[in-house]
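Hey, can you fold this one?
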Amino acid sequence: MTYLLATTAALAATVIFLWVWIALSARLLRVREFFDERHEVRCADGATIVLARVRPRAATTGLPPVLLCHGLAMNRRAFALHEKRSFAVAFAERGRDVWVLELRGGDPSIASSDLATSTFDEYAAQDVPTALAFVRENTGAREVDWVGFSMGGMLAYAHLGARGGDGVRRLVTIGSPVHFVEHPAARALAVLPLVLAPLFFLGRTPFRALALLAAPLLWPGFPLALTSGLRGEHYNGHWIRRVMANTLADVPTGVSKQFIRWMNEGSFNSNDRRLDYLEGLSAITVPTLVIAGAHDRLAPPTAVLEASDRIATASEAHQIGARFGTARDYDHLDLILGRDALTDVFAPVSEWLDRPSL
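Sure. Predicted structure:
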């Protein structure tokens, strides 16, 4: 009995310590938001997305709004963490009306009973069309320019391709894979479902809590090479701690399971197998720019650049890295959050979107 009580007390103390650690991390590392507007928008299936707006900060260009969409396990801050290092503000300073989409489950303050059954397919079938309709209705624009990072680009592929959607004038994808054949994580997937099994009983995979646990530990000297998805030369301790504490978010568990299945199978399709998102790329008629990080370990260049080969209309593909003219190499998160991302990635993206014709 004494042993049982001691074990219970130790577990309770550990839970309390971790809860306090996470709460303090969230509070002390929080970076204030600078959006001009924030809208909670209800999808047809009852789930809620967030659309945050940064209005033009220079003379308007007459070009359509830019809609930015984050990647897996991220939130609206991925494109808008700091005013001086933000894709959202950089677009606004070029006269663009900027909207940042946060998919269902990204905001912990919004309760939702639909997350347990939500998958990538719900993101594509519900969140994306809802966001496009809201932005078009509130700006009077017929189309938007979509810029998607990682999964944010994959969602545009699914919407415009296999799902036959519209509403996009030009598409930019950054680090967005279109298959998971020979993915670097494939070897770990044999045991990953067993490790994550307890989490699958939750409606959300708690990436945010895990990020907040790790964020205070990322001081100078921490071996960032051990953190898949980024290269240490792009960050100082101050910046990487705030990236971890502010840009990562929970994910509907169904989405996590779907990505694990894709990695196991090397596929990119709907859960019912009726829609092949990879094959659907050939149906996309929107001019597309595909950006890949030359040293991206989460979305290898071969898996990213294949999109430009499959899209039949005008498309371009760029690799970002030292071999292609940049001062530093680029892993996954570096493409939008790295030290020189505004120079090396945003600049060619903005120039491509601004071209009068393609």
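The radius of gyration is 20 Å. Let me know if you want another pass with a different chain boundary.
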